[in-house]
Amino acid sequence: MKMMPPAAFARSLAATPALNTKRVLGLPVVDATTDDCVEALLGGAARTVFFLNAHCANIRARDPHYAAALARAGAVLPDGIGIELAALMIGTELTENLNGTDFTPALLRAAARRGLSVFLFGAKPGTAEAAARKLATTIPGLRIAGTRDGYGGTANSAEAIREINASGADILLVAMGVPQQELWIDRHLSDLAPGLVLGVGALFDFLAGTVQRAPAPVRKARLEWAWRLAMEPRRMAGRYLVGNATFMARAAWHALRLAGPEAIGKRLLDFAGSLALTLIMAPLLLLVAALIRADSRGPVLFRQTRVGRNGKPFTIFKFRTMHTDAAERLAELRASSDREGICFKSRSDPRVTRVGRLLRRYSIDELPQVFNVLFGHMSLVGPRPALPTEVAAYPAHALERLDARPGITGLWQVSGRADIGFDKMVDMDIAYVRSRSLLLDLILLGLTAQAVFSGRGAY
């Protein structure tokens, strides 16, 4: 008989919005903050939750049954830096790393506030009980409906299911390791009563203290995999040394197939060009940094949110050319703009420092953007990266310029820069987006040198 989710989940099922997802390695992976994901799941947005990391992706590639279970999952959450890198390879960015060891306790804290109960199923005998005691201590008010080990406790699935259902648990955590836990959940879901079922891997071991987690600084640096390798080198060598290399190759091949030869060539040009420029210009970058510090108070680099490809915000890097109160003084200067349209430009902007005028004259202030290109936020050639306030004021047709990654240089930059009005700039950017090619990029890079030395429109 097919079991219905408990009333706590069923009541809010119709009113719960679907979780936002982005396709990574062909799977719809949840793209949300921890808080938003917790709220959606406890509201009934999904019945089953699986986590996807590099190791899971490798197993998925060779196990069709596990791949099918992942495809049928209600929600697949990104776990670890590998999935983040795979997303970046295809030009997308995930909001947050939702690894099971951190996410599940956050989910249970919210569950405790709602009076929901949890059943722990899996791991070695005694581990689930120890994990339950830890959860009860660290999450006041959490109701533990029951525990069952994943060894003898799984010998009779029908008996295990009867015990889980009889407990009245709202949430079921299954910790049998990948892919056993996902296959078990997928096979028995229709017979399970809990409204939310998660496959949580080694969570019980971490909670029980039988496996030590990496220190917080190591986790923050996204190197927890290296810690586990150091703790268990024989067991983890295949997973993390061979496995990570295999995963990265698989993710890169997937990205190449999606991108096509033209996009691959452009990204290779961007990566190789930005890396070479970074190495060649290192002495110049250090010299400019020293001049900025000597000329005025404030940081060397100016960081600002800009709008990138497909409207995705990113942080742009430039050498600071203005005094630190520039943003506060902008309103009083808008009337003196020398450019028609949305974007403000003034030849005699009093906010610009002495060194800043020189940097702007020869576009040296733009050089730190090579790091944006290296990280994939920008391209060497593309439309000018716009401010969020500018994009908010765009006419509808101007949004087409966001179809390409913004660039350090482009048609607008080599054709007069600030001397060109907003409408003309948009027309140029749209023309580039519609006709972009590697050959065009190479031509524009060549013309950029001439534009820089002429200084036309640079202020």
Automatic annotation (TrEMBL):
**Any idea where the Bacterial sugar transferase domain is?**
266-453
Q: Which residues cross the membrane?
A: 268-292
Spell out the protein name for this chain: Undecaprenyl-phosphate galactosephosphotransferase
Report the InterPro entries cross-referenced here.
Answer: Bact_transf (IPR003362), WecG_TagA_CpsF (IPR004629)
Query: What CDD domains does this protein's entry cite?
Result: Glyco_transf_WecG_TagA
Q: Which organism is it from?
A: Salipiger bermudensis (strain DSM 26914 / JCM 13377 / KCTC 12554 / HTCC2601)
Lineage, top-rank taxon, reads: Bacteria
| Example GO BP | polysaccharide biosynthetic process
Q: Which Pfam families does UniProt cross-reference here?
A: Bac_transf (PF02397), Glyco_tran_WecG (PF03808)
**What keywords were assigned to this record?**
Exopolysaccharide synthesis, Membrane, Transferase, Transmembrane, Transmembrane helix
Q: Name one GO molecular function term.
A: phosphotransferase activity, for other substituted phosphate groups
The UniProt family comment states: Belongs to the bacterial sugar transferase family.
